[in-house]
Amino acid sequence: MSWYNVLLDAAPALNEKTDSIGDATRALSQEIPASITLDELLTGVTETVASSDKTKPEDLKRVQKALLVTLTCLQQPDRIQESHSDQDTARELARVVSAAIAPVLPFLKDDNGLPASFNDALSSTRKDLNKHCKATSVIGLQCLEAIDNVFNPSTLDDDTLLTLIAYSHPDENWSEDPIKTAKLAAAILKTYPFPNKADFITSKVLQSYLRPLFSKSKPSTITSSGRKAEYQTDNSRDGIPDDTAATKPWKFTDLRSIPVFSWAVTEADNALISTHWPSYIPVLLTLADDSTTSIRRTGLTILTNFLTKIPAKTLQDTGLGQVFADAVFPTLSYLPSLTPEEESLQLLEPAYKALLVLAEKQPATGDKNKHKLLDRLIREGIFTGYFHAKSHVKIAELLCREMGEIVEEMGVHAVKHLKDLIPMISAILTDPFASAAPQTLLSAVKALQAVLGNCWPRLQTGSVWQDEIVNAVVMCWLNLDEPTSNISQDSLEEIRKGLVTCFQALSAIAKTEGGTDLAARVEPLVAKAPSLAGLFSVPS
């Protein structure tokens, strides 16, 4: 029996907690022979993990033990005999270790080709793979860190780099402490000198790695060159998304793909995006249209990042601006009760953000396009969303928050929507139970401030909206005084301060061009309700 097998048998079992790794390596280090070679270690580890199945618990324990033996040996570099081939051996050992912890399956067992909605094997396998990653990621990354510290291989296998990139993404739940794990992976990557990062992104990541994975799930809205398609076909099966392992290996068999793609967008500069944008488009649209909430949300976030870097002229010349808008707008309809409130909140915020960034890119291609997109956003997004889900206070809060940002972006052009903006805000402010959701109330107050700041030319003396705004602000103030209001003191003060700002802004608007003095008009109200004096304290 080789020294490696002796250590493998002696290695203790590990759990997902990283605290036990240090104790285990210290205990196992007593069993290491005085002289070992890196080639012997590589051979032993390869034989152990090469045939392992990441969905089997018994194989998981063997992989854990193999990684523990590897880490223990690397922590005793004085016992490793030097060899002229150590650099190449270390590079290969890094590849084997990264393959052992990679969230990748070479095949999907028991897959019957059905979409995920009807296929228990897909969800079960993903859970098993996630469990494997949680149990091996930390010790595997520690092995890679030790290889880098001891042997510092000049190059790393592309697959090793892809695994490190995937683990450097803190949003992926592949360990008990994703942020700590991501920092460890990022630290290893930082020491690796990419000869040409731009070439690695375009050639290795986008073309060699991602393109084959997404080739069967490319949306019909674009051509093979990444431009807007004139004719589109439906890729679904009678309305059912083609959510299978065969068409979406990036979703079911290689879970590195999404974080790696996110990295490829983040690390690319504007010049790279402006040149190689066609390679990004299929993946962007596929993720932004996926049926799984977490993936769609991530796709929208990545799309927002991408839109900040792509030239506005490219969006216009290729028709991609319209393609992106058409891809994101359907997400705004993911509202309760058809969509659970929590999932709706997860999707709406990144969707609005992506569309606002897209609108910001429009000035270089003509203000008319920008206003058209913002008009559509406020009509099909804010107003439609409020109509369908106004009873959900968290949704109403988000819509008010987004409304404020859209109005700020529209500027004075938002006046065309006053007939819908004011009634929506007023309904929230005058709700007698609004204090039960102070954040929603505060969002409505801030939205009103945005309306006053941008639409003031239509709110001067004689405007039909002045009285409604005054009424809304007054009713909100009085409702906050009700004994049934359980609002906290901090929230109460913040909302009241916002209401005072609203009234002061409206008073300033009313005084323009010789208008009326609102303070004088509201004196009778103060006489009836003295508490309103705090609201109507307009500075001279």
From TrEMBL:
Q: Where is the composition biased (Basic and acidic residues)?
A: 227-240
Instruction: Enumerate the residue ranges of region (Disordered).
Output: 218-243
According to the UniProt record, one GO cellular component term is: nucleus
**InterPro entries referenced in this protein's UniProt entry, alphabetically:** ARM-like, ARM-type_fold, Tti2
Its family remark reads: Belongs to the TTI2 family.
> What's the protein here called?
Uncharacterized protein
Instruction: Please tell me the species this chain comes from.
Output: Cercophora samala
